[in-house]
């Protein structure tokens, strides 16, 4: 990625940030929704589930909720890209000498900055209801970085879908499908408690890798007594988003170039 592409991306990032400054309701509502989920699941399930390997359920749940919130970025980014395309903004940008990666890069950078604020608010809410970090400061910072790493990959998936599938029905379908993809993971319950085939799918879900890595780094209960998530969670939490980025960044650039075809 060239310096010029990064400069173009930064200009478009500032554009999106200024738009939110004028109309802040979308990011504010997104943060409020995430806090509501955190409080709802934290208090509903806080003491109701036993974990393999022992430990309290609330400290197990919170890293999973942080991860689930990172997954929710896909539909908001897809919706913003679709709206810009529908209104002709993307066509005007394409008429300028801007890299095919520059425009989606600006969108993802702005969304990622919003995600940093969102994650900080969620962690503060978690601390307020009793969640604690028992690992080192360095490990906690690495956990936060892995959460944002997953978010970045999810945002690029949203960019590609917004460029490639520009119908309102597709956006609704993605919003619906995000939930089962998130639930088919270790966010709420340990894969060891699921039927064998379902636990296998949950164990290889990228969301599960990030959630398990964050639990390990935060010093929270792992909810597992063995297997790939117990032994290689941090490596998988880095590898899965890297794979998604390797696939969807080039796909997004190609979809952007082919918009008029």
From TrEMBL:
Membrane-crossing segments per the record: 25-45, 57-74, 112-131, 137-163, 170-190, 233-253
Keyword rRNA-binding: no
Membrane topology: Multi-pass membrane protein
Stretches assigned to the ABC transmembrane type-2 domain: 25-259
Keyword Cell membrane tagged: yes
Top-level taxon: Bacteria
Pfam families the record matches: ABC2_membrane (PF01061)
Subcellular location, record wording: Cell membrane; Membrane
PANTHER family: NODULATION PROTEIN J
UniProt name for this protein: Transport permease protein
Organism: Streptomonospora arabica
